[in-house]
Design a protein that fits this description.
Layout lengths: L2 H15 L4 E6 L6 H10 L13 H5 L10 E8 L12 E2 L8 H19 L5 E4 L7 H7 L4 E2 L5 E2 L7 E8 L18 H5 L5 E3 L2 E2 L5 H7 L15 E3 L3 H4 L26 H5 L3 H7 L9 H12 L1
Parallel strand pairs: 3-10
Antiparallel strand pairs: 1-2, 2-7, 4-7, 5-6, 8-9
Length: 306
């Protein structure tokens, strides 16, 4: 085995030890196929009021502009599929937000992995990313052989579906690169058919400005009236396109205690949600990603779908 292969194997072993579901590596280079797609998506205003999506266009497509001398993009998946879900007939939040905010949980694991690389392999320069910087996570994960991008635009794997977070370490270290896997969506259109707001405008294209997740998290203004009655009780985020995906019957519960739901959350009824106070909101969602929408945002969402 050459040193690149040995180093790559060491990194993947450590990633597994840290609890990551899988780890893949791709060469840090310009994302040629993604460039026209991203440009078209932005030109069609499918990002709605997410103005930040227009920023750093070049950096989104070339990791070498984010890390000087970048040679490799190490992509990692971390499972968040819960063992227990919310009670039936209640206002729903996306499963990823049940536990503590994933940004903090993953950043800490990435820091440990980066320190491991520096200690075991030698001083490297790199940066860790958890969907809060101009990095096309899904494109890199697919390029690294961790799955394929499904018709609902989420990363999919045959083994465990799609309920996981994606993160990256971009480093100036040459490693052994993985190859992409094939697409296994076939003729299935379950996600397209199930989306109540018709946000999946064609296979592999999601109009972000029509997505329930966008309305309940990103949109700061009033939710347009035309979407009344189409939210299927989703108050923060939406999992419909993932819930109906046949590959998610292979989802397995995560083993990350920090992603466990607050004990009060899963049993909350519609009445509990409608009567929630700011104090209860702070207690239940103290460390959760739900804080992004703020108490007022959550109230607005519930009012809209009542």
């Amino acid at each position: 085995m050459n040193s690149k292969a040995i180093n790559t194997a060491m990194i993947k072993t450590e990633a597994k030890r840290l609890g990551f579901l899988s780890c893949g590596v791709s060469k840090a280079e310009f994302l040629e196929e993604e460039a026209p797609r991203l440009e078209k998506w932005l030109n069609n205003n499918m990002h709605g009021e997410m103005g930040y999506m227009e920023n750093h266009f070049d950096k989104r497509l070339d990791p070498r502009l984010l890390v000087d001398g970048a040679k490799s993009v190490i992509s990692l998946l971390l499972n968040y599929y819960p063992e227990k879900e919310q009670v039936a007939n209640t206002y729903k939040i996306s499963k990823y937000a049940y536990g503590q905010d994933y940004h903090h949980v993953i950043k800490s694991k990435l820091k440990t992995l980066q320190e491991f690389i520096s200690e075991e392999i030698g001083e490297i320069h790199g940066r860790a990313f958890v969907d809060s910087a101009p990095v096309l996570d899904k494109a890199w994960a697919a390029k690294s052989g961790l799955g394929w991008v499904g018709k609902h635009s989420n990363l999919l794997t045959q083994q465990v579906g799609s309920f996981y977070f994606i993160a990256e370490l971009i480093v100036d270290l040459e490693l052994e690169y993985d190859t992409p896997v094939t697409d296994h969506c076939g003729t299935c259109t379950a996600c397209i058919d199930a989306c109540p707001t018709e946000a999946i405008t064609e296979p592999y294209v999601v109009d972000g400005s029509k997505c329930i997740s966008y309305f309940t998290i990103e949109l700061k203004n009033e939710i347009p009236d035309e979407f009344h009655g189409k939210f299927d009780d989703w108050a923060f985020g939406c999992d419909i396109c993932q819930d109906v995906c046949p590959w998610n019957k292979f989802s397995k519960p995560h083993r990350e205690p920090l992603f466990d739901a607050h004990p009060d959350l899963l049993s909350m009824t519609k009445k509990d949600w409608e009567e929630i106070t700011e104090d209860v909101f702070k207690k239940v969602f103290q460390k959760s990603a739900v804080k992004r929408t703020k108490f007022s945002g959550l109230q607005r969402n519930i009012e809209f779908i009542k």
